[in-house]
Design a protein that fits this description.
By secondary structure, this protein is of the alpha/beta class. Helix content is about 45%, strand content about 15%. The strands form three sheets. A four-stranded parallel sheet has the order 5-4-6-7, with helices on both faces. Strands 1-2-3 form a three-stranded antiparallel sheet. A two-stranded antiparallel ribbon has the order 8-9. Helix 7 packs parallel to helix 15. About 40% of the residues are buried. The model has no long low-confidence stretch (mean pLDDT about 95). The structure holds adenosine-3'-5'-diphosphate (A3P). Adenosine-3'-5'-diphosphate binds next to helix 2, helix 6 and helix 13. GO terms for molecular function: transferase activity. Pfam families: Sulfotransfer_1.
Length: about 300
């Protein structure tokens, strides 16, 4: 079945979730043939829940002995250019996998290629407050929407989000899949909250590094390496780099997105400035019902 999408495309139902057409093609290819390696690290997110930030953090942590902080790839490349999206990559390269150990995806847990679960690789899942994720997505989709189409109506978008028909949604089923997996396989799946990273980046960057088997040594801690990682990847730093202010990111051969679209505010709680009390209650109602053990 098809449902009306937010931007231009329709979303398609596949194995319990809603997808835009092009990633879905990539996902089907990955489900058939993707071969994970035990050393792979997969960053999994719902769109607009902190992908750009966590790509930067994981890339910096994993490559900290390779690159100097003053001459770092993230100073001249958007984080999305450093860490590919598996489904977009697979859509354009159906017969090969990226030769990198850090990869990202929005795929729900239940439809991950079997080899990811069988390989012993690690999964880092980022959870962001649903109202902040929704508002960020609404801004993003509004920006990408072609001018010839009427603007997106916020009320309609809330309605659609709450019905589960958002890209890679339902939001709650996506979250629950990884939440349960993180309880069942805590050394394979890490569930990390955007808000926790924002509140205590030192603690959570340390945990992230330990989880993916790139722990900071006490020598590195004394030298302030964790601070340097956090500083490099901070919203203030990344959003002010020329590459992210004026550059663009080629999501696929058919789509190019201005890099600055990935950096809006980088805060928690912005939903309060956008959603009416009724809209917030509508989202809270469905989330409390669906994610009662978690929120
Ligand atoms: P806002 O629209 O609320 O500002 P994604 O990377 O998954 O597309 O998510 C984008 C959201 O993450 C946007 O949220 C963006 O501003 C925020 N973001 C991007 N880089 C960030 C960073 N380095 N630190 C914190 N938030 C960041």
């Amino acid at each position: 079945p098809k449902a009306k999408g937010w931007a231009t495309q329709h979303v398609h139902y596949h194995q319990g979730f809603w997808f835009n057409q092009s990633p879905l093609q990539g996902i089907i290819t990955l489900q058939k043939s993707f071969e994970a390696r035990p050393t792979d690290v997969f960053l999994v997110t719902l769109p607009k829940s902190g992908t750009t930030w966590f790509k930067a953090l994981l890339f910096t942590i994993m490559n900290r002995n390779r690159y100097d902080f003053h001459d770092h790839p993230l100073l001249t490349a958007n984080p999305h250019e450093c860490v590919p999206f598996l489904e977009m990559y697979a859509m354009e390269n159906p017969n090969q996998r990226p030769d990198l150990s850090l990869l990202s995806t929005h795929m729900p847990y239940t439809i991950l290629p079997k080899s990811i679960l069988a390989s012993g690789s690690r999964i880092v899942y980022v959870y962001r407050d649903p109202k902040d994720t929704f508002v960020s997505l609404w801004h993003f989709m509004s920006k990408l929407r072609p001018k010839e189409l009427p603007p997106l109506v916020l009320e309609d978008a809330v309605e659609q989000f709450c019905s589960g028909k958002s890209s890679y949604g339902p939001f709650w089923d996506h979250v629950l899949g990884y939440w349960k997996a993180s309880i069942e396989w805590p050394d394979r799946v890490m569930f990390v909250k955007f808000a926790d990273m924002k509140n205590d980046p030192i603690l959570h960057a340390k945990r992230l590094a330990e989880f993916i088997s790139y722990p900071f040594s006490s020598e590195e801690e004394n030298e302030g390496v964790i601070h340097k990682v956090i500083e490099l990847c901070s919203f203030e730093n990344l959003s002010n780099l020329e590459v992210n202010k004026s550059g663009s990111y080629k999501a696929s051969s058919a789509s190019k997105i201005e890099s600055k679209t990935f950096f809006r505010q980088g805060k928690t709680g912005d939903w309060k400035n956008i959603l009416t009390t009724e809209m917030a209650e509508q989202i809270d109602g469905i989330i409390e019902q669906k994610l009662k053990d978690l929120v």
